[in-house]
Amino acid sequence: MVHPIVGNKKAVLIFLLIWTMLIGVHFLVLYWFYDVDSLHAWIDSIVFNTIFAILSLALWYVARYNSPSRSSVLSLLINHLASLILITVIWIALGSYLLNVFIVSTFYYDFLEETIPWRIISAVFLYFIISLIYYLLLYYNDLQERRTKELKLIDMVSESELNLLKSQINPHFLFNSLNSISSLTISDSAKAQEMIIKLSDFLRYTVSKDDSRFTKLEQELENIQRYLDIEKIRFGNRLHFKFEVSDLCYDAYIPVMILQPLYENALKHGVYESSEPIIIRTECVYKSDHVFIRILNNYEKSTNVKKGAGIGLKNISERLKLIYKHSDLLKIIKTENEFEVQLFIPLLTQTNE
Question: Phi/psi zone of residue 310: left (φ > 0), alpha (ψ -120 to 50 degrees), beta?
């Protein structure tokens, strides 16, 4: 960790300003309370405070290498006591020597000896204040580093979730699509070719977003359309879908593949378990600070719908919470014959495309 003052122009200016004020206070004390003439008072103040200012810079390393979290209380006290004694001795000895050089006065030699006790008290006070400031800076820096690491960890978790989602595309969807293609090559080669192209485009989009966390809603819906088109070839009239999306919504950025599990869920619990036509409706409305997305599908009341573990919806909720720092961006509404998912996606000022 670099020195918080050295190399930092703003910190240097603040440092010089504080010590300039201390020089002024020191001068006033000597001039008003000890009746020292102004010249001698200025020399005394400048010499002693300049020396302590330089020593205070070295005190940073004492504080840094004697962290309360790494050292015992006894070790901390012993190290700081030794440091305080050393700094005080150097300060008074060097200051007295320089004053003897600049001030040739027997009276002032006697004055220096008389004021050593309060100079020691001043050294203890300054040492304590400066050490406290350094420890506060160390604590603040440590807090910032932990926060940075936490944010990086959150990003890594979010990215890992996305990579896991990409690497675990519903295997049943792939197997069923390939089986459908195999059957269509005999009965309808043109439709088989169409399905192969759509499946290829779908997979290409899925693996092409490795370096992205966000994508335009337009691109995400295009891939969803491919997915539903493929499933439409399999299920025929049992599957219908409808999109009602405001034009402004298309340019909004959403997390990559955040919608895919919702459509898989609609197919699994709607079309797969139903003998009647199922309609999946997608609606999107552009608001001032977010886009509101609704995905609805009907299902048969009489069908014994299998209960899933809810992992897909839970993962979506967690991803939204990690990205946007809100826990209420996904809502689920279930009635006797309809399942609805609501997404509230905050608008981004910049993207990670």
Answer: left
